[in-house]
Amino acid sequence: xxxxxxxxxxxxxxxxxxxxxxxxxxxxxxxxxxxxxxxxxxxxxxxxxxxxxxxxxxxxxxxxxxxxxxxxxxxxxxxxxxxxxxxxxxxxxxxxxxxxxxxxxxxxxxxxxxxxxxxxxxxxxxxxxxxxxxxxxxxxxxxxxxxxxxxxxxxxxxxxxxxxxxxxxxxxxxxxxxxxxxxxxxxxxxxxxxxxxxxxxxxxxxxxxxxxxxxxxxxxxxxxxxxxxxxxxxxxxxxxxxxxxxxxxxxxxxxxxxxxx
Amino acid sequence: xxxxxxxxxxxxxxxxxxxxxxxxxxxxxxxxxxxxxxxxxxxxxxxxxxxxxxxxxxxxxxxxxxxxxxxxxxxxxxxxxxxxxxxxxxxxxxxxxxxxxxxxxxxxxxxxxxxxxxxxxxxxxxxxxxxxxxxxxxxxxxxxxxxxxxxxxxxxxxxxxxxxxxxxxxxxxxxxxxxxxxxxxxxxxxxxxxxxxxxxxxxxxxxxxxxxxxxxxxxxxxxxxxxxxxxxxxxxxxxxxxxxxxxxxxxxxxxxxxxxx
DNA sequence: CGTCGTATTGAAGAGGATCAAAGCGCGTGG
DNA sequence: CCACGCGCTTTGATCCTCTTCAATACGACG
Lengths: 261, 261
Prior knowledge:
The structure is a homodimer. Chain A is an alpha+beta fold. Chain A has helices at 49-55, 139-147, 150-176, 179-196, 210-217, 221-233, 249-256; strands spanning 61-65, 70-72, 80-86, 89-94, 100-106, 111-112, 125-128, 132-138, 203-205, 237-240, 243-246.
């Protein structure tokens, strides 16, 4: 056996020896951080204006990824960190028996692929949940640049740390919350991220299926569906398939702490 | 509400505004990586001999931590990354309602505290499960040093990435494994880490309680106990309180994939 | 020797999982 | 344009795993 989730050492899941062919691998358009509308959410976040311009030296390209297409696969060589420009992605792990665990959903300005640095190969799959576009940031160039810019170095570290903290939260959720708390935490988180991107915090479209939400939250799709229905009955949400409206943010927040005391 | 586990953004758990007083904060003894017996497991892992000597410039101190004592707390200012020299630690998160989630157990050569870089404050507590000693590596010095050494920079990145991958595995475990698989995966992982440190891979002493194992694995202490008993009945383990002997590694490994097909 | 913390074990109960069926939206092809 | 099939979702009924509550045992320590 070696598909087991090893906990401290790098996981050894299905090392598919495939070289993914990216049908969507269009000629690169050079993109500049300094003129990007996402610069306050994305990599440059925290850098001063003149420092952001140094990032322009990266000259990274964009890549369009169509709905359902992979951005990278488990086992792919690690070369880039990807920043979402538009669209939504899910990242997931697969066990040899086919069980999947969604490890994250990623929207504009968020980074993916940092798990690949550990072993030089990506440990997870990333797949577009709608037509999407990413910046492919060559990691080697990034560290070159960081070598002459302590601030940038610090920021890269902070981004990785943020990923660690994000996963901490998810562990908390998976380890000690019930179905209602999980879904509530998920929706609140989504709501905050939508808001940060200038969208409504109370009404949005889910890009992922019930099964994908379930995998992410460690529950079955039926349970996800039931919990949505429950929240609707309670007047906390209005749900129509993938369209969600948060009616009572107060009580949704409270649901996360329902079992308190 | 704000104790909710936010998933993408940094978690906001109990920001205890306390300045921990470390009773065990003894005068620092300067320690050198190049002469350390853990150099193949720890930070210098992957650096060539002459490069390791550059790490000696760090001049970091050691700190002894007694059983039950905290190394750092949630909310403590982030200054150091800690490398375990001896002993075992657990790191955990606390929700406002007191629910705890153990996020990791750490033994000789392993690093802790990288979650603090995200916000400048530690997001988790670290506590010694036995009398222990750590190296306190000043993060600022580390990045200074890395600025002139691309290899070191790469290694720091890799260590953080490894932490991300480790947590991926735990998410997989928490999200899609049953009690038997969880405990089996836990024990196998422990076994591998003991082996890497020159201890027996088949017989060891658990430093943590059933409750702590349970918290880590997302199950109750009774279930942990019952699963230990089950494995013993099946002749897979011999268990006497905290002393564990793996009798049938084959079947323990198989237990991780029991539900396969 | 009594007490406290930890572990084990049993019995009962609850929360999700599983199995199953039906509804809905959507694209395809006749 | 409509019929059909497919994928996703919802909902119900039943089952099962793990939790909860409780009692007991064990060892360390004052």
